[in-house]
């Protein structure tokens, strides 16, 4: 499970956009979005760089949670 801090997510549309972007990269990815905590948890075979790129391409600022 990889965890990312994502800024700018405010609503259900944001959740759908981020989830869709990640699942377009890995159709089997399991994505959990915590709007209040501004975090996205992803269970995927892809590396963090690929997942971050997908989130950023949707227009959100993201980094690996640490």
From TrEMBL:
This is Cation transporter. Coiled coil: none annotated. The lineage of its organism: Bacteria, Pseudomonadati, Pseudomonadota, Gammaproteobacteria, Pseudomonadales. InterPro entries: Heavy-metal-associated_CS (IPR017969), HMA_dom (IPR006121). Residues 1-63 form the HMA domain. Keywords: Metal-binding. It comes from the Bacteria.
């Amino acid at each position: 499970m990889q965890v990312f801090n994502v800024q700018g997510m405010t609503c259900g549309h944001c959740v759908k956009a981020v989830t869709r972007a990640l699942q377009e990269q890995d159709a089997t990815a399991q994505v959990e979005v915590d709007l209040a905590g501004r975090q996205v948890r992803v269970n995927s075979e892809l590396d963090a760089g690929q997942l971050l790129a997908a989130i950023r391409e949707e227009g959100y600022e993201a980094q690996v949670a640490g």
